[in-house]
Design brief:
The protein has about 375 residues and is an alpha+beta fold. It is about 30% helix and about 25% strand. Strands 1, 2, 3, 6, 7, 8, 15, 16 and 17 form a 9-stranded mixed sheet that branches.
Length: about 375
């Protein structure tokens, strides 16, 4: 394969800035998808858009099993957010630049670098939707439904975290819990149950759960809404709850505890309902898996000590079905999901070389016979 040259690196940086300037909140990625599609065409590929909005482009290769290389299009930031970007010789700062504009740019850079090369097998480049928030990985789910066990590996790109190898998918369950009461006037109907008061008590009870540190298990109330006016007894209030655990059995146990606690608050005059709004399945491949070993070797080749991690990424979907998959970082940075999110430019070349090395080795994985 061609080496990573300065021209490709500069192109990736410019593409990252261009991608970052296109709003792409989860479920509204169309404009960014349009841009990526046009870039693939200019490179000489024939991209397609699937039913959920993913953009896929194939670089044809030999008879080895194909590889899937993906980067998610969406960002946590709303469509009307100020996307101002700041650049200097060392870093680029701006909302969404690391998560995940730089990865989308690298996807395009790989397309330009490898188009026309004599590859051992097909390389499918996927710019997918719905990785963030309540997207529930429906973009990657569509990809996995289509390709199933055909690929030798699914390789997922995230902008930051160079040196990290996510080979374990963190299980995540999310719920919206709604409390409804008759409501009333704050003075005239004093003593009637308030949906806000009930919800506050429920949150207090839930956050007192004694969660284990091992396996690491967490809960978070991320959103609360309810009520109408300051002098009204609230007739409705709701929260969004995020539950996570390294161990799927522990996660199921925690979900059961929350449901039991919710049930105790449901009584005449107080209706409490719990609806699942998110489910990211868990899964993993062992550290001894050849794909994980290959990723570690490519980092070591660059003088980087690899760190094996668990996380909630697009890799969850193929991992949950037993398919070989990992997620890797491309550069270093910080302040993800904020206005001050930034990436460092100097490590980016190393990150891209690591990726090219991993693609080469993934076609050589044991069991990747010609098809």
């Amino acid at each position: 394969m061609k080496p990573v040259c300065r021209e490709i690196l500069n192109d990736v940086i410019e593409q990252a800035c261009a991608v970052q300037q296109i709003p792409a909140p989860t479920f509204s990625e169309e404009r960014r998808a349009d841009y990526v599609e046009k870039q693939f065409v200019q490179i000489g590929l024939q991209p397609e858009r699937d039913a959920v909005g993913n953009i896929l482009a194939r670089i044809p290769g030999g008879k080895k099993r194909p590889l899937i290389l993906s980067a998610h299009l969406d960002t946590v930031h709303p469509g009307k957010k100020n996307l101002d970007i700041h650049r200097n010789a060392e870093r680029i700062t701006g909302p969404g630049i690391g998560d995940n504009s730089i990865s989308v740019a690298v996807l395009l850079g790989v397309a330009k670098l490898l188009h026309g090369e004599d590859l051992p097998g097909d390389l499918w480049l996927v710019a997918n939707v719905a990785e963030e928030g309540l997207g529930n990985l429906i973009g990657m789910e569509a990809v996995v439904n289509r390709f199933a066990d055909q690929p030798a590996a699914y390789i997922v790109l995230e902008g930051m975290g160079l040196g990290l190898i996510y080979h374990r998918g963190l299980g995540v369950n999310r719920y919206r819990i709604v409390v409804e009461t008759p409501g009333g006037h704050s003075w005239g109907d004093y003593g009637m149950p308030s949906a806000i008061h009930e919800l506050a008590q429920l949150i207090t009870r839930i956050t007192r759960f004694n969660l284990p540190k091992r396996p690491r298990t967490t809960l978070n109330v991320g959103v609360i809404e309810g009520g109408t006016t300051v002098n009204t007894i609230a007739d409705q209030a709701w929260m969004e709850l995020d539950l996570r655990s390294e161990d799927e059995r522990m996660l199921k146990k925690l979900v059961g505890q929350v449901k039991q606690r919710v049930h105790t608050f449901d009584r005449p005059g107080v209706l409490v309902t719990m609806q699942e709004i998110g489910n990211r399945p868990a899964g993993e491949i062992p550290p001894t898996h050849p794909l994980v070993q290959a990723a570690q070797q490519c980092l070591a080749k660059e003088g980087i000590t690899p760190t094996l991690e668990i996380g909630s990424t697009d890799a969850n979907m193929p991992l949950s079905r037993g398919y070989p998959a990992i997620c890797i970082g491309l550069t270093r940075g910080s302040n993800a999901h904020t206005n001050d999110e930034y990436i460092l430019l100097e490590p980016l070349e190393t990150g891209i070389r690591q990726l090219i090395c991993l693609l080469e080795r993934s076609w050589k994985l044991p069991g990747n016979q010609s098809v």
